[in-house]
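agent> step 3/5: call structure_predict on target 'Putative membrane protein' (Mycobacterium intracellulare 1956).
agent> reason: downstream docking stage needs a structural representation; sequence fetched in step 2, passing through unchanged.
tool.input:
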Amino acid sequence: MVSGAAFGLLQETTREVRACAYLDVAPTKRTHPLRVGALLGVAAAVVIAGTAPLWSGRVFVEERWLSVALLCAGLAGFCVHTTLLGMLAGINQWTQYGALMVTDAVIRVAIAAATVVLGWHLTGFLWATVGGAIAWLILLVASPATRAAARLLTPGGTATFLRGAAHSITAAGASAILVMGFPVLLKLTSAELGAEGGVIILAVTLTRAPLLVPLTAMQGNLIAHFVDERSDRVRALIAPAGIVAGIGAVGVLAAGAVGPWLLRFAFGPQYHASSALLAWLTAAAVAIAMLTLTGAAAVAAALHRAYSLGWVGATVASGLLLLLPLSLQTRTVVGLLCGPLVGIGVHLVALSRAGRATG
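tool.output (status=ok):
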């Protein structure tokens, strides 16, 4: 979830770099985003290390201090990683953008595979979780285009960049809680999950992945698209929202038709979920995907406050709905389906107002 919050740097950097092409007047102040991202990463690592004695014992059962050290180092590297991704997205360097993401994934998988083969146990898997954080360094050494992107400056002072980044990081943190931290939310709002809770958590994870994994990877593409569509960003939402809705509709039908069988086939007969549950959870994943789209449009329009408020509102609403006195399955569906609608509403209202103000 901490790494998820760092994705806010990708979003703000993409917007800042992309918006440079539309400036009418040369800025008097400029900022070096990669340097700011590195400093933020170091600052976050220092905060985590300094506060670790207060919380690490409850979070890490084994290899406590190695886990803390790797978390600090990994977060610092990931802040640079996401900032560089944003810079590449801002200037349409999609080959390097993809190469950076693939390099990150390959490093993690390679370390995990070596851990299995060589029997490194928990220590190896801990290294695998952060090993990809050096991918940015590999690409800087290997790619002249990446080095050129890393030298880019954005308009405005460091304080301006940090204000925008703070809202984006807040929103990305709320997104990480709602998406990656859902099992924690469910545990906090339930007296006892039991076996049913385990099945629901697995079902939520599986129904989200086909939509949210690629959509998260495309954050840079989406923000760049919406920055370019300056005349009417609400209208610019129609095409990507239609694609997501179409894929989602197919997913809902597939989840209801073959989802229960696939779940039992892949994980065993004890993992039983109804067709209705899997279909509704897939619909909830579509709602979060739509929130991701409207959020990208809000960032592109520099509506930082509305962007963060939308994601925080969606996360809070989902958490409150999980407290409803309903069955575990019902309140899970209600929370995950209705919570994102709050955030979507916030984003669309802000985008509409901004469109009327500029139109």
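agent> step 4/5: record observation. The mean pLDDT is 90.
agent> proceeding.
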